[in-house]
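Entry for iron/sulfur cluster complex. Fields follow.
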Amino acid sequence: MSSKKVAAEVVTDESYAKHEKIYPRQVHGLFATFRVLGIFILLGGYYIAPWLQWDGHQAILFDLPARKFYIFSLTFWPQDFIYLAVLLIIAALALFFFTALAGRLWCGYACPQTVWTEVFLWIERKVEGSRNQQIKLDKSPLTKFKFLRKALKHSLWILLSLWTGFTFVGYFTPILELGVKFVQLNLGPWETFWIFFYGFATYGNAGWMREQVCIYMCPYARFQSAMFDNDTLVISYDEARGEPRGSRKRNVASESVGLGDCVDCTLCVQVCPTGIDIRQGMQYQCIGCAACIDVCNQVMDKMGYRKNLVRYTTLNAMDGGKTKIFRPRIIIYFLLLLGITSALIYSMAIRIPLELDIIRDRNALYRETNEGLIENIYTIKVINMDLQPHQYILTVSGIEGMKVINKVPEIKVNSGEVLDFPISIQVDPVNLKKTTQKLKFDLISTTNPKLHVEESGRFIGPLIR
Amino acid sequence: MSGQDNNEYDAKQIPTVQKVIAVLWPSFLTAGVATILFFAYFDPQLLMQISGYGNISRMAGYTIGFFLFWLLTSVTCVISCYFQRPCEKDKH
Ligand code: SF4
Ligand code: SF4
């Protein structure tokens, strides 16, 4: 009984247990260069893209207030949601494909979490100095110097975060207007809210949470191992070559002191953004950033040893086998990816920027006119998704001798607008073969005959025996 | 007895951040998906007009919609987490 109480206390104690801050040491080298390059391309793209203009509108704009998405010369409507869904499926498949092929490439080089954390780390280093200086500063009592450093760091982080939030909102409402409103201090409440929300998320995730996002929050980090096989590229320490580890003087051959090549300098642990020791084998916390490769290679150079004690390799290669690139799983992912991508491109290429909706009058199935004809009423909805205004002709077919009464002589719709109008269809009962008959509605643009859509509708008459 | 030890072990294993994240984060993701799906088909402005709640801006509609979804999904997550705890043992 009392042990239950103990358990409860353990929980509370644990709630206050502090998370150990990780101070990744700065690293230079081939892969660090790749990462910096990636950061420039990705973040540069992120911050610049919403400012680009195209054909008189923002080049990339997911205009939520207007419910329209612009991507260069393409305009998407809520009706085109399927494209977005397919795009997301493609993105997921691409992630599977690259994971099976090259492991956590995404995590180490392209994930926004990694990319923004790197920038935040860079600011931290500029303000607080190197890893050792940072540790010392954090241990020291609160002095004016420490306070100023911390205040400066957080101010810079917050500024960058708010700019990030502003840019984010700029993808969803026109950024030029947003900029003007911002300068005039006249931002709407919802825009302000989302700028702060996204800014806060950036500040929290890249400034405070960091590797904990990867370890506790990222679903991908949890399931990516399911996509690994023995031929997937991983970062690994060559245990056979490195052990037994131990320190020694420079340029001493390992064999002469009876040691492996690892000099146990722990630099690989110090550079690791998730604070793990790669020498303990593959761990799910490893985000594949290759910082440990870069730093260990420097050590090996200094010692005059061969490089690549820590390296990109595969489980097969480490066991002395050959790495197979083309294996069934890769081929299947690739074919799926290719198939869905081509289908998407094809369907976008033949997509007709015109939509026709036929809505039957809900109040009455049919009506008999004074002349004894059977009448059905429809609402016709025409959506012009093209960038030009158009005029259209509507024709209806399907029943012999039918009369189409359309009070709107001209179907003229401006770009991006919707027109709806009622039409009535009257049929002589002798021509009705069935209670429900199919109708075909054809809408064609007079200015561009390629803009032609077909819809089917139903004509309902009295019961026919 | 060993069950008790196990509970203690589990509680020790899971840091508070992870517990908070386990509720707020999956619910955030699903709320995001729900918001996108829902508003791809329904225009918040029209919805409000039809249901007679007056005029709101679309941004307001999306935002409120998102947070309502998030509230709902996080309640679900809290309940899941609660049910995941081992059932209370008999007193003897
Ligand atoms: S950096 Fe290389 S040599 Fe240094 S401890 Fe790590 S594996 Fe060993
Ligand atoms: S173990 Fe190496 S590759 Fe993995 S996260 Fe740490 S430094 Fe990066």
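NOTE: The pocket of iron/sulfur cluster (ligand 2) is lined by residues A 235, 271-274, 276, 278, 286-292 (CB under 6 Å).
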